[in-house]
User: Fold this.
Amino acid sequence: MVEHRPWANLLSHGVLLIGVALIMLPVYIALMAATQAPGELLRGNMPLLPGGHGLENMRQMWQSGIASASAPPAGRMLWNSFVMAMTITLGKLGISLLSAFAIVYFRFRLRLFFFWLIFITLMLPVEVRIIPTFEVVASLNMLNSFAGLSIPLIASATATFLFRQFFMTIPEEMLEAARVDGAGPLRFFKDILLPLSITNIAALFVILFIYGWNQYLWPLLITTDPDYYTIVMGIQRMTSDENPQWQLIMAAVTMAALPPVLVVVFMQRLFIKGLTETEK
Amino acid sequence: MAAITLSGLAKTYAGGVAAVKGIDLHVDDGELVVLVGPSGCGKSTLLRMVAGLESITEGALSIGGRVVNKLEPAERNIAMVFQNYALYPHMTVYQNLAYGLKNRGVKKSDIDRQVRDAARMLEIGPLLTRKPRKLSGGQRQRVAMGRALVRDPAVFLFDEPLSNLDAKLRVQMRVEIKKLQRRLQTTSLYVTHDQLEAMTLGDRLVVLNEGRIEQVGTPMDIYRYPATLFVAGFIGSPAMNLLPVDFLQARNAGDALDALPPGTDIIGIRPDTIFLAPPAVPHLACDATLELFEAAGAENHLYVRLAGGEQATVIRTGQQAPVAEGEILRCYAPLEALHCFNQASGQRTG
Ligand SMILES: Nc1ncnc2c1ncn2[C@@H]1O[C@H](COP(=O)(O)OP(=O)(O)O)[C@@H](O)[C@H]1O
Ligand SMILES: [Mg+2]
Assistant:
């Protein structure tokens, strides 16, 4: 157990506080920067107090974007990011749940072969296969589309593998009891496997949503139409403006950081619930 | 309500393990038959073949006069209680009981009535809104039973349903299962490795060994006339004493030796048929060293070693020890209490 010695207590709290400060300071600076008047930041100031233009900056960024950097309104980009991240997340979850279900519960030919095939793709993240993938997406006319943004990122060996491991811990009698109770494979999946996996699904949802939201290289490569820009790559574009409007960029950054935070906050309840009432 | 008929039922697993080797058995409508045998003898495999959870390699299985070899478990009109209960952890007790009915498209109002009836019968009414993890072992066991009987199936299948309970609860549930089965008159197959549970529960017993039937009969039949050496050693506690005939002959152990059926080379004697005074009928007699006296209340156990022998022999008696531990006593077994076997064939000789 943890000993209660005052100086150790003080020390550990000190270390933690320094850690929090290190992480929170940039966030704070970005927040403050987002509230400054136009031009304030270009003059080389880095104010640590609110500048009073926060709402105005946000509204401008949200509604009109930065024309000089050919950045569309942030509202549009956030929506694009959201659609891409959600499609990737739900796609990955759906596909990996189903493929793990197939691998664990069905005895088909070459089952092990397919398992390893899926497993091997772990070694091929987007960055490695980006050129051939681009070729394929381009030939399928999927450049500048939500399909092109999300589909190539959906296949997920990691999630398949995690669900496989989890399914294998569920006692075989559970399936047998369900069979005696007249549940076919899909009903077993829907009524028993899915509810039992809910904690895992929530945890993966968070991880995958953030993964999808933070995609940078891939959207940069396949979108040339501003209608399909995502917020993460959009921000990068804004910074390459001749006169970067930092107060607006920081407003965009603040907005871009919000959805992942919200996802964590909402999903957290689910998996904390799962952790405290482990059932099996 | 249905009779079960197994003809030449056999199972060889994919790896080549022959777990069940040709079983012929008829279970009458309403009967409670217990499959008993040591661990690994194929009891579970056989039960799971009847349930439809394990494919049948050979032979025919019919339930209620209908061959069901190829039917899914749900189509066989059976219900099963699993050793670890296999309750659905995310569902309440009510939902656990209702799930099988729901899948069969039973009307909501009927489901409700049936679930409440079953809950009343098993006295789990107050638990209906709880989840399985909030239940004690005994309560889970009841819920597992409830899930089986709520559907009013033609056949109950039990796979060691009491083995996860403590001794006291086990006895209590055993009685309750028997009463329920009597009341519902549902044909039942019950698997256990516990011979006491088997003896007390079954209308008939099927003793299995290495995938084959050793003997089928009522518990008393099997206790009184074990058909094989294996059954003789397996049924009864303390176990039957098995003594080679030539060992007894070398000790000139009494006139009963002249009256043995031909082919006998092993003699089995139940611990409660060894006496400390000579009976008036032909009998065996032998000197033995008392090694340990065990007082168990209503009955006492004498652990003795026959003169010149290696094997420990048990005597069950109501009396006190006639001599001190380490001293010699003389013990007797009447001819009519001897079970005679042939070692090579393993069969009873008469
Ligand atoms: N799925 C399986 N694959 C291969 N062999 C099995 C399988 N299940 C059981 N066995 C083997 O079949 C034999 C009988 O097993 P089982 O029916 O579970 O015995 P019991 O229930 O009487 O203890 C054992 O030797 C066991 O190792
Ligand atoms: Mg078993």
Notes: Residues 87 and 150 of chain A are 6 Å apart (CA to CA). The interface with chain B takes residues 171, 173-174, 176-183, 187, 191-192, 195-196, 277, 279-280 of chain A (CB under 8 Å).
